[in-house]
Amino acid sequence: MHIEGRTNVTSQRFGSGSIDGLGRELGRFVVATMELPWNLVRERLGALPEAVVCVESLESDVVERQLAAMPPCDTVLAVGGGQAVDLGKYLAWRRGCRLVTVPTVISVDAFVTPKAALRRNHIVEYVGDSSPDPLVIDYDLLRTAPAELNIAGAGDVLSCHTATFDWELAQRAGRSTYPFSAADVAAGRRLVQDMDDQADEIRRVTDAGLQAIVDAYLRINTICLPADHYRVEEGSEHFVFYELEQRLGRGFIHGHIVGLGIYLMSRLQENDHERIVDLMHRLDLRFQPADMEIPRAALAESLLNVRAFTERHHHWYSVIQEREITPAWIEDALAGLRFTC
Q1: Sequence-distant (≥ 6) Cβ neighbours of residue 35 within 8 angstroms
Q2: What is the DSSP letter of 127?
Q3: Distance from first CA to last CA of the chain, Å, rounded?
Q4: What is the pLDDT of residues 153-188, one digit of tens each?
Q5: 42: which DSSP letter?
Q6: Mean pLDDT on 24-47
């Protein structure tokens, strides 16, 4: 698909085998990665890096320590999922060098967004500004990841369903942080419809399904980068995730936990809940607490606390401020979910 507008991708290379020989084009390069994705590509690059920096944590003090120990280089090659790509973006930005991204899974849109999602005391902070040159999408490489991880990429697109609803609520309440754009809301909802149209290809992880997710991420950028905010794709569904992440002190597969947020917040919004849940089932998107080992009690406590959490962290106005989350509502909402503890 040809995509008009600002995508934050300086150049791109799509197709099976795209990774082969890439290392010979990078000059002196450092790889930001994790053990598993690095083992998938190291023999295919055709050149050796100056160093391999593996993700230990995205806490800012850990990343700064790794940055200080990194040798000089011309390029940072980010290989892996969202955490490896965020590490690579940050290192490239701080060193002022070229960034090349090779996602080995597309469970999150980190590989096309300019800022790196670091953590400070388990709270997300988006920092930096970098663009991949090129973004390399190797379909066969992506399919080495478990199917459910690539399907998870659709979760960060489906979040437009609840986030656009929240933006409309904020606008009606006079609480929108940014100038409201009906055109941006409509564009966000078209992306959800496109996921619906491509649901079978995405579930089967075909070339077309993988490309549909990547194209959707790029199209989100064409909406959000000119506006300088991500209001169409981030709302109450993400805020539930942030609260849970801090409460449990561990990370999640982004698209899975966002899917759980969509399940809960679309219900609170009374926003086409059955349709979006049916779509998540058709995509085979894993959003159940049992899939993420989230205890029922922790999720209930998180929902009771999420309004105070969003206000304390100055998150955007959403259904969380608009409608009270009561113990009775939580009981009903959690009754439709699966738990193992």
Answers
A1: 54
A2: E
A3: 44
A4: 999 999 999 999 999 999 999 999 999 999 999 999
A5: T
A6: 97
Q: Minimal CA–CA distance to 116: which of 94, 145, 137?
A: 94
At residue 99 the predicted structure's pLDDT band, cuts being 50, 70 and 90, is: very high
Using an 8 Å Cβ cutoff, are 35 and 158 in contact?
no
Q: Say which residues have a Cβ less than 8 Å from residue 103's Cβ, sequence separation at least 6.
A: 80, 81, 85, 111, 137, 142
User: Is 69:94 a contact under the CB 8 Å cutoff?
Assistant: no
The candidate with the shortest Cα–Cα distance to 136, out of 233, 244, 22, 50, is 22
**254-269 helix and 273-283 helix, angle to the nearest 10 degrees:** 160
Calculate the CA 91 to chain-centre distance. Answer: 19
- In the 8-state DSSP scheme, what is residue 88? H
Interatomic CA distance for residues 222 and 287, integer angstroms = 27
Cβ-based burial of 273 (10 A; exposed 0-12, middle 13-18, buried ≥19) = buried
Residue where the block lists tokens 């496109």: 194
The pLDDT assigned to 206 comes to 97
175 and 314 in contact (C-beta within 8 Å)? no
Nearest to 268 by CA among 230, 237, 301, 232: 237
Residue from 259, 254, 252 nearest 286 by CA? 259
Q: Pairing relation of β-strands 12-14 and 29-33?
A: unpaired
Let me know if 54 is exposed, middle or buried by CB neighbors in 10 A (0-12, 13-18, 19+): middle
Tokens for 214, please give them.
Answer: 């990547």
What is the DSSP pairing of strand 123-127 with strand 116-120? Answer: antiparallel
